[in-house]
Amino acid sequence: MTTFAHLSDLHLGAFRDPALRAELLARFVAATDLILSAKVDFVIIAGDLFQVNIPEIATVTEVARQLRRLQDAKIRTYIIYGSHDYSPNHASMVDVLAGAGLYQKVVEGEFTTEEGGEPLLRLRPFRDVPTGVTLVGMSGRKTTLERRYFEHLDLPALEQLPGPKVFVFHSGITELRPVGIPESESVPSSLFPKGFDYYAGGHVHQRGVHGLHGAPMVYPGPLLGYDFRDLEAGALQPRGFYLVEIDQGRATPRFVPVPGRDTVVVRQDAEGLSAEAAAGALRAQLEATQVADRIVLVHVAGQLASGRTSDIPWLALQQQLRERGAFAVYVSRSQLRSTIVGRVSIGRSDSSHIEERVLAEYLDGPDPPAPTFRGDAGVSLARQLLEPLCAELQPGEAVAEGEDRKIEAAYQLLVSARDGAAGSPPQQRTLGDQETDSPHAGDEAGGEEE
Amino acid sequence: MPPTVSQDHSPASRLEVIAQIIGGEHGQILIRQKAGERIELGDLLVADDPTDPGSSMLLQVHNLRYGSQENDLNLQLMSGMQLELHEGGDFLEPQLRSYVLAEVTSLLVIERGAQGHSRSRRPKHLPSFFRDLRRVRPSDLDVLTQPAHPVFLGYLRSGSRTIPQVRVAIDGVDMFTHHVLVPATTGRGKSNLMKVMLWSTLGKDYCGLLVLDPHDEYYGREGHGLKDHPDAPESLVYYSPDPPRGSPALRINLRRIRPDHLRGIVPMTEAQGQAAWTLWHHHRDAWLAALLLGQEEEFSQLDIGGATIGALRRKLRLALGVRTNEGQVVSRNEVFTTEGGDSTLSDIVEHLQNGRKVIVDTSRLSDSAELLIGSIVAGEVFRNYQGFKAAGRLRAMPVISFVIEEAPRVLGGGSEEPNIFGTIAREGRKFRIGLVAITQLCSLIPREIMANLNTKVILGNEMAAEREAIISSASQDLTRDSQLIAGLDRGEAIVSSVFTKFAIPIQVPFFDELVAQELLHRPPKRPPAFLG
After folding, report:
1. Could you tell me if B532 lies within 8 Å of chain A, comparing CB atoms?
2. Is A299 a catalytic residue?
């Protein structure tokens, strides 16, 4: 009998709040402890070990330490890229740690084309020698670009591989997709090879055991996640990983919860309230909530009857929670709206002048998008961003490549602006870091307030 | 109909003349066939006006008979001489003595101005006596304009002669929103016609089409099909319980079915309907699971009788193809399920509203299950489009049409409860939603609905009652075309539409040949680089 641990979507290094970053790492350490005590044969990490392809060094150091503990216990670790830590040119910390021998990346393949036929992608099988289990992996990419690879998979070759065998992937499955996730950001089950004993999934943050081609297909979900919705979901459902036993061609997954700090969610409906009344109601709710050593999630939504969203004393409310011992405070107000709408008026017809005035008046309005965009520097940054984002495709450039190039250029501008403003060393990111590749159902990105 | 033909508008030369007008009346003109020529039923002929070089009249042959200068007794005598005495027995030159007469109807008057402008109108006069007739030339029909959104139906046909230079097409926006009827008996090329029609809509986002395919014949799982269209990857979505690679499986979560979806699809007594709604109010989207798995006591508490529940369960198990086993709902066809399939119906709606063509393989489903899927999607689209109209956004949305085989199942007059398809047939046009109704038995469709199906692509039909139903609701007067319709060969059709100036005879091309042409010119695929 073979036993392995299946984790995914760890997103290590996520969160700007150091407390949440630390909690995430602590859960990873706890998971490692549980894996070690379970004496598994190997570990599968089905993508998104890291939040970004180049995370901060402190995170990498701790991750390397935990992987080393597994290695010292003769537990092999197998991994694929996820959509967050993917790098098309293998410039990811995932590759660095693989190069250091801390784990094996199980994604390799090449295209072949027979005369007049369709191109076929032959994936290389990897064998865990001590157990004889074969692993085949398919990395996740931003906006499920890996679907193109799935469409060309040489399925018969994979289906003929001897068992026991595990298919590792980082994609949503079309038929299991909740309402709200675009179909284009998923892979239909018909593109998956049949005959595998276990399908080790990642990318979908809603934990679940499903069936695929007669075998278990499992999404472990994150240990903590990387945004408000993950934290919120974690308050309702335990987070953890799966221990899987394969015995005589039958895989049996068992969920193992990973301990962590409690999360409490406070919701305030501000619909029809004045900013002052909304603040009062929220304060009253917070005061009635046990927050000590807990992660406190504050979700405020609705259309204010009067006042601006910024009239609610966010910083003071958070400060009060921290003073009462809250471990971390995370406020989502992306669904809070103000009725005060700035009117933009322009007098000249010169396009660059119009652009500048529109941006200036909007960014100076009641709800500026972020501090980075305030003042003249903000207007200048917004105008700079327009240039790469409006750029035409270059000759011979594919649409996806063009989009990647635009996003990369825009991102570099944003990073430079942020680092310049904060005077802090840059957190390195490259393509694939964008947090737009959400595995959540129909959610908008939750706002984080510090 | 695209004017992609030579611009030959010269009057008929003597060599071209095949007949001459010799009598008759408006709507039934009598012509004499020239010796050595062969005029067929359905032939399109042209009478040029010698006094006005720009004017001509298009006519069509509806009946053929013999004419002779001899009386019957003489003809009988001549035949006897030939048969018994082996003598010629001709009293006159043969080509003058006996001939073929044809009854023709004037279809269109075409007038060309000096600047090359042309227009057409319905004929209200008779062409002059002894007017020469020639066969139609492709250039005669360049007066018909190319629609903005052409749906190709076939090539112009004159009798049994195909005129490949003239492609017959109707504007898809008009045609789909005003409903289409394809009446045909088995083996007359109905599915070939549908594939040809659908092929020309792929890659065009002005229309979304949902095809409920009970024979799984459109996608081309085996052999050629719509999947072979170059725009199929972006434009075509195929759902099947057993999908080919790349297609999503047809899975529909039972939570997505509401009692009102069953209206007009699964017949229910009043008590059963009330029971369904009671369960809905108590269990919301888990009502079907509650119905199928619930215990007797629970139903008693809700004041639902055991017999009612039993009957309702049987009906829904049969309709949905599900059974229960150890407290679980098990799907026989893996379509209606309790796991996954949450977004399938909303995906289909979204595809349609994005102008895609969706084929649903319903070959393994019961009639009710097939219609249930169509009904849920159609209902959702209808509600959405009502909303778009109220918001003034309807014009920006693609038109949507539902292709339904054996249409009398939902459009027949027998159903006690109305269903969404009947509503669409009556009101869909206002919301840019239409039906493509395919049937062998259009006589079962109420006249009111038949009259609303404004384009009829009529294939061969031997059944007189069916022909009568088609003819009596056609957009043009086809009262003399009954035999013509009965005699249509496979692939031959007549297009009668409010959007055509006359009932156009067409030859539908073989779909396989259409695809083979396409595949011939397709460049080989280049593999992408693998960046794993």
Report:
1. yes
2. no
